[in-house]
Amino acid sequence: MVSxxxxxxxxxxxxxxxxxxxxxLMAAATGAAVALVTxxxxxxxxxxxxxxxxxxxxxxxxxxxxxxxxRVLRAxxxxxxxxxERRAASHxxxxxRLGGEVLPNVxxxxxxxxxxxxxxxxxxxxxxxxxELGEPQRKMIRMVCDIVDHQDSMRESAERSFVDIAxxxxxxxxxxxxxxxxxxxxxxxxxxxxxxxxxxxxxTALIGRLADSISVIGGGRPGRQxxxxxxxxxxxxxxxxxxxxxxxxxxxxxxxxNIKGTAVEQVIHAAAELLDNATRYSPPGSKVxxxxxxxxxxxxxxxxxxxxxxxxxxxxxxxxxxxxxxxGTDVQDLAHHPRLGLSVVGRLCTQYGMDVSLRAxxxxxxxxxxxxxxxMMTTEPGVGLAHGIGAASIPQPGPDALPGPKRTPKKxxxxxxxxxxxxxxxxxxxxxxxxxxxxxxxxxxxxxMPLSQRLAEQAVWEREDAEREAxxxxxxxxxxxxxxxxxxxxxxxxLPPGHFIGxxxxxxxxxxxxxxxxxxxxxxxxxxxxxxxxxxxx
Amino acid sequence: MTPPQRQRRSPGQEPYAASSAAGPPSKDDGTPNPERLxxxxxxxxxxxxxxxxxxxxxxxxxxxxxxxxxxxxxxRLCAAPLSAAELSAYLGLxxxxxxxxxxxxxxxxxxxxxxxxxxxxxxxxNLLEAVMHGLQKL
Lengths: 538, 138
Prior knowledge:
heterodimer; A: alpha+beta; 3-stranded antiparallel sheet; 14 helices; 10 strands; 57% helix; elongated; disordered C terminus; B: mainly alpha; Arc Repressor Mutant, subunit A; 3 strands; 7% strand
């Protein structure tokens, strides 16, 4: 094939020689024929022979020429097909490079935060050789970038809608929690209703945790913010209250530290997921032990269960799962991971700088270790260690604080309906001025009444009071009592024990008829016994 | 989308007064602690001893190390006899939770419960008359 080029040059010379043989043969044949035929035919035969010779020479020349042209064409064709094969090979190479090197680099560049347009403009920055790519390749890169960008934005919007829905669920759960707490306080004295409320409360807490998980996986924050620092003990109990089998959790020796309000929810959620895992993958009767100790970098929460021991390979798998989650999980990935909780924990750990690891436990199960960094802790005083216990309820919390007579007044509004209306807990409770048809007290705030009217009414009351006192004094004078002012109306039922005896003796001294004195006092009693009604009944 | 709001059923309080006065504060004091009541009291199955609102409770021992904060606070409060209602108020816990806690403590014999001492508000008239007659005979 290589030697195709040279022959035409060499064949140039034998051109005449090739034609020579048929020409000589024809000439010889013509000569022989001329010699053989008779005299008169010689001229004609000679002419015919000459013509035939010329024709043969011409035909031969044409054949040789065509043969040469054919050879040239064939060489041309071979050259062309070789060129095409080279082209095809180089195309293949280019495609391999495009798929194996250029596109990954470009996509990587785009993932670092560039739009497809930007990527195309700054193609040379990725690798200078990329600027030499042909137009079709550039088009293809552009198209791939566009598609990837579109897919990314679609996934993002899907995640955002997940988070959005989770947010709404969280809001409802939060509201529900608040109202359930109120209901629990309102119905605290009815054990049946109360227990049912607690069950609903528990179910709501589980829903809330699920919503938090979805929110975290979608890239959002878990739940609400807490306004004040919360003690770690309360945080862990908060985590307990969000799992199904909280009774199996045993909190022992929890370090007395406070968690910052902004970090409380994250710790609660991570701990709740780990506790849920621990209770879920251990025998139903076994306990899960939780301890928390202060370490150099923060607080270390250890959760030990007595479940199936973690084999080396399953540990590696779970650690891999956590690592994967720490890098960031797609919502799409979750279909392959039944252990949703660990993904959530991994995600939370990456976002907030916590650390989690799983080890084999001395109980034979798994020991999960959650390290809360010290930046999440605070030295500020938090809310009381438990519900309302602490500064709010006991003046001096401590072993020597004896709550005796110096009790702080109750601040909380009474929720029990059985406190009689006549007992006023506060000084400025609106007074009963009217009664409804059903016999219930109709109360009106004083503030609703204009000041002038109030003053006028007060004047009327005072006048009536004065008149009645004058009348009573006159009556008493008629009955033989000294006209002294009426004794103080009985304020409370807490009278000193000797009061009646004293009054009794006084009566004896003043009056000889003892029974009459008794009747007198008992008939006088209703006039001033209920202190509230004095002068206010119209 | 806001869920329906519950009207607080607070006896002895006018509806408008409750909505205007108790609205803002309940927002921030709502639940300062993340734990729910069922974790403290135990849900459902917990047995309740026969404790009345006025049953007097008195502690018999110092709180053990293993006691929960609520139990420890309860034992400290009960150093002097206190009624169950008062305990409920001081702890800020509903009465039903306090009964569950008290049941646990009663079972471990850390507290003692006793019926309230009934004090008559008004002295019995017959008694007074008898006293009077007795005194007159002196």
